[in-house]
Design brief:
The structure is a homodimer of 173-residue chains. The first copy, chain A, folds into 2 domains: 48 residues, Orthogonal Bundle (Arc Repressor Mutant, subunit A); 82 residues, 2-Layer Sandwich (Alpha-Beta Plaits). Helix content of chain A is 31%, strand content 25%. Chain A has 5 helices and 5 strands; from the N terminus they run αααββαββαβ. A 4-stranded antiparallel sheet of chain A has the order 3-4-2-5. The first copy, chain A, starts with 9 loop residues before the first helix and ends in a 28-residue tail after the last strand. At the A-B interface, helix 1, strand 1, helix 4, strand 3 and strand 4 of A face helix 1, strand 1, helix 4, strand 3 and strand 4 of B. Chain B binds a DNA duplex (17 and 17 nucleotides) through helix 2 and helix 3. Chains A, B: Keywords: DNA-binding, Transcription, Transcription regulation.
DNA sequence: CCTGAAAGATCGGGCGA
DNA sequence: TCGCCCGATCTTTCAGG
């Protein structure tokens, strides 16, 4: 939680590369790969967590396997003074909203939404549109991913995920 | 790599929740938490990796700490027949493009881009705009994230990340 | 499908260079 | 900062219900 990132050397970067490739790689294995002892690797990892460079370790899951089969981005246009704080409060109430940010350009905010299916998405969209300060929305349904593994992880400062128990109970079947 | 996801029971979901919260949680700990032996937990995790439910384990990193301080979404409008395959090929050549997808709505594709700074982003954008089939682009610079931890991980079927050694050599300093 | 046992690897703290 | 040492814990395979 400290905040003194301090420059990372090449060893730190290699450690990060190893851990992003596989978060469960042992410190010993990383160590032999980069010419350091397991202890030294662990210390560096601890320090990077301390300073907020590494914000966590997470399993990546195929959302469809958990029942989230629909994905969309929503541009949000707000009334006059749209205080980001207000938007943030509202947005946090939706488990379907997995990312939200203010943006420059036409829209005030951009939301990333996951839903079980199109019906569910429509329901979420309608709920969002009734929020007091929202003037207009434009939705982009995601059709297909062009990059097999779209990282995007750590877009904010991710540490905990936890989409999985929120809503859908129907696996791939 | 097999593909027969087969329904997940509640135990599987709890294991996923534990591993997304912290990918380095030991099987033993997960086991005691959900009332299973470490062996049983491992077997279930192995199976879920096998069937593609869990696609990998990754460290989440604060991009700014690695030198990626600028983030944007780009709507791409293509000429006439815009074959997704063609777009995918091109898009894969850009290390700065961390996610790309085809979308319904006005635009043909939506790109997520990370750059070291605004100058770098402008340079990337200009390169993208010279691609043969692109007619028009609209950029949204990300100003601030409204959800502290925007998961988004596993948007596709993530297993490896690896942004970190591609370009920027300048840490936080 | 599960548990339990056992061998080897890993973790994590302490200590000295 | 590092590497080495060591007890506790974890991983992984195997046998058995």
């Amino acid at each position: 939680m400290a905040h003194a990132p301090g420059p990372l050397d090449e060893l730190d970067r290699k450690i990060i590369a190893a851990l992003t490739a596989n978060a469960r790689t042992s410190f010993a294995e990383i160590g032999t790969a980069i010419g350091l002892s397991a202890t030294a690797v662990k210390r560096r990892v601890d320090r990077m967590r301390e300073t907020g460079v590494i914000t966590g370790f997470t399993a990546t899951v195929r959302p469809a396997a958990l029942g989230w089969r629909t994905e969309a981005y929503i541009e949000v246009y707000c009334d006059g003074a749209a205080p980001p704080r207000r938007i943030a409060e509202v947005v946090r109430r939706y488990p379907e909203i997995t990312a939200a940010m203010t943006v420059s350009g036409g829209a005030d905010a951009l939301l990333h939404v996951r839903a079980t299916d199109v019906e569910h998405f429509e329901e979420v969209l309608e709920r969002i549109r009734t929020e007091s300060f929202i003037r207009k929305t434009i939705s982009y349904m995601v059709l297909s991913h062009l990059i097999p593994d779209s990282p995007e992880a750590g877009a904010g400062s991710s540490a905990v995920q936890g989409y999985g128990l929120d809503e859908p109970g129907s696996p791939t079947r």
